Amino acid sequence: MAQKPSYEHLVSAPHRWRRQLLLKGRRITVGQLVGQMRANDWDVDRTSSELELSREAVIEALDYASRYANLIAEEAAEEKRAVENATTAL
Q1: How many domains does one find in the chain?
Q2: Model confidence over 65-88: pLDDT tens digits?
Q3: 90: which DSSP letter?
Q4: 80 domain residue, yes or no
Q5: d(CA 34, CA 69)
Q6: Is there a contact between 16 and 79 (Cβ–Cβ < 8 Å)?
Q7: Per the domain annotation, does 27 fall within a domain?
Q8: Cβ–Cβ under 8 Å, residues 60 and 8
Q9: Residue 48 backbone zone (phi > 0: left; psi -120 to 50: alpha; other: beta)
């Protein structure tokens, strides 16, 4: 059985349905960070600079995102459904 990696810059936080890790000291999930990187076409150094994060934190987040891409995608879909449901309820 493969051992789960441990992360120095990522933490879990209690949430009703979200299970992916967040950046330590921030209220941003790994999926949100990676999404912001993609949307802005930022590399590790630019992300580190723009968001005032260490390079190591960004690299850890990218590692986590590659290992748990399915979880991040599932949670993004859940969040989209929640927004759509809230919008139709108005």
Answers
A1: 1
A2: 999 999 999 999 998 988 888 888
A3: -
A4: yes
A5: 11
A6: no
A7: yes
A8: yes
A9: alpha
